[in-house]
Amino acid sequence: VSLDQLITNCQKKNIKAQEQLYKRYASTLFSVCLKYSPNYADAEDTLQDAFMIIFDKVTQYKNKGSFEGWLKRVTINTALQRYRKQTVLDIINEENIRDVDVEVDEESIPLDFLLRIIQELPDRYRLVFNLYVLDGYSHKEIAKMLEISEGTSKSNLARARNILKDKIEKVNTHQPLRQTQTR
Amino acid sequence: MREKKNIDRLFQEKFKDFEVHPGDHLWEKIASKKEEKQDRKIIPFWLRLGGIAATLALLIALGSTFFNSNSSSEKVVDTENTFPSEDSDTLTSNEESLTPTTTNDIQNTNDSNSTIATSNNTEKSSSSRETTNKAPEQQQITQNKNSQFKNNNALKSSIVEIQNTSADSNGSQNATRPLNTTTIVTPTQNTPEKTAVAASENNLEKRETSNNFQEPKNLGTVNTSEKGIAENEIATDVNAQKTQDNQKDLVEEAKAIQAAREEEAIASVDINENNNKRWDIGAVAAPVYYGDFGGSGIDPEFKDNKKSGDVNLSYGVQVSYALNNKFKVRTGVSNVDLSYGTEDIAFSPDIEARQLRGVNYTQNARFLSISDNNTQTNALSENSSDVQGGGRSVTPGSINQQVAYIEIPVEAVYVLSDNRFGVELIGGVSTLILNDDNISLESSGGLRTTLGNSNSLNEVSLTTNIGVGLNYKITDNVKVNMEPSFKYQVNAFDSSVGDFKPYYLGLYTGVSYRF
């Protein structure tokens, strides 16, 4: 079945087509959910919600832009819906906003570990980090999506980076810690 | 190998091809959640709608009871108590204060003044009696009467003032001025308490005019409208030197009265319109029974099978507009769920299954052979030798067809009776827009599987409606409705399939609000 045909059938709420759509995109979208959710179980819930919304709103997809991109956006938005309301303390410290380098033995860092430390971030830090670093949204866009200011977005990102850096460096115990960041 | 790396780039590279399969169990969850959601959606929506309607009805009911009691009874009492008594008080004080200050010469005039006052009083009391008599009648009339009555009062009080001023012109200016102001102030303070604001403004205006002019000749105008009470007595006291000014004031006073009349007319029109509310909006819900006059929506083979109509829920909103006392047009939008069963069928798995004409099969259901139970058993017994001990197991069951529509009615309502209990006749057509449909197979053991959806249902179809509306008016604005309706579907199914002629019966109940 061609993608166009599949989309059309999904728009007609054909159950078979919906299942096919799920099979085709579940992996891609589940990875999004894993990154944006605090744990595996939550990611499953988010994926469920996302597909419910996708099946509901697929009639509104008008063949503008890639379908996969649309699916990802819906999924990201679903995750944002779930987690953006939980607030974290916002302390905007412009000094923190800069690139953070970390010294790592690249081979030794498993993906699982990186995913876990992303998931462990406070909700808002996690969302901002994912949106900015992994999905390429600008601070301006993030501010709008999360209903925060651009400054908050920047500061959240900086804090997320620092937390991640600390955790990565802590596992590399055989290597002395580099100059620790001031918190 | 150790290197210094930008943390962003580290994550970007690592997550570039990140994909995790969620596991197959998740699809089952999603599928079941979807069904759950479909089932759940209907009830909360209706509950919410019903909740809103009920709250609205309650608020309006409470509100209008309070308003009604305020506007009808209390107001009449107000006018009776405060107005005439207030006026007569000031009148008496007028007389009292006038007496000591005036000279002997003017004593006569004062006497005549008090005569006028008393005559005014009597007329006032008579008119208030009139109001009391009228009070039990309709609210509207009372309101009109009230405003008229106030108008009279206003005219009368201006007479009083003029009496005072005529006394003024006779030399007792200092003494009467302050009294004049009190006469004006007291009624004005009272009037805001009345609901007929327009009327009270009239009063105020008139009083002010009469106060400003302070001309005895005003009396002329007022008197003419008051059928010339005591015109002669006062007219004799008029000072000749003021006649010129009087002419001007006469015109102005006449204008003021005219304006007041017009305003009052406008106010009373408003009151009329309040009781002439034409719009009606309400929420309705109905159990609907789906029946038919023969045929089958699934396959010609089942035309003569027994069918069982199910009862489902329809709910929606209605708006009607009254063209006149007898006719209303009504429209709205509602959701209708319908379903019926075709009994006495049998099914068995078959690779080359004959497909039912009216069904758009799903992938799984394609290998089910479904037929009329009677013919099936015949066929089986004929071929029993062929299939002896074979794997074909024939299961009896029924086919259930569900159809969901969005219904948009356009109906004419003829009002037979519009008392507290109202009776109406309703006729019209509805446009049905196909929302969802489903055909499923149910075994006699209660197992159910989806066959697919119908290929013979028209996306848009019509019904012809006829019904009887019964309603009970809780207040002037809020009605409870009950409406048994019969709706015959005109072109719901493609006639080539089974020449199905369905109809549905509904008992529509709801609450509506008139505005």
Task: Provide an overview of this structure.
The complex is a heterodimer of chains A (183) and B (515). Chain A has helices spanning 3-11, 15-36, 40-57, 67-83, 111-120, 123-134, 139-146, 150-171, and one strand at 101-105. With 183 residues, chain A is mainly α. In chain A, α3 (40-57) crosses α4 (67-83) and α6 packs across α8 (150-171). The radius of gyration of chain A is 19 Å and the shape is globular. Chain A starts with a helix and ends in a 12-residue tail after the last helix. Chain B is built from ten helices and 13 strands. The model of chain B is unreliable at 71-236, 267-274 and 376-390 (pLDDT under 50). In chain B, α2 (25-101) packs antiparallel against α3 and α4 (139-190) packs across α5. The chains are: A mainly alpha (183), B alpha+beta (515). Chains A and B meet through α2, α3, β1, α5 and α8 of A and β1, α1 and α2 of B.
Largest sheet of chain B: 8 strands, antiparallel, barrel
Q: Which series of helices and strands of chain A comes N to C?
A: HHHHEHHHH
Q: Give the helix level of chain B as a range of percent.
A: 40-55%
Helix content of chain A: 55-70%
Low-confidence stretches of chain A: 174-183
- What is the straight-line distance between the termini of chain A? 54 Å
Q: Briefly note the structural class of the backbone of chain A.
A: mainly alpha
The H/E string of chain B reads: EHHHHHHHHEEEEEEHEEEEEHE
How many DSSP E strands of chain A?
A: 1
Radius of gyration of chain A: 19 Å
For this entry, give a set of tags:
heterodimer, A: 183 residues, mainly alpha, 3% strand, globular, disordered C terminus, B: 515 residues, alpha+beta, eight-stranded antiparallel barrel, 13 strands, 31% strand, flat
Short description:
By secondary structure, chain A is mainly α. Chain A has helices at residues 3-11, 15-36, 40-57, 67-83, 111-120, 123-134, 139-146, 150-171, and one strand at residues 101-105. Chain B is α+β, with helices and mostly antiparallel strands and 515 residues long.
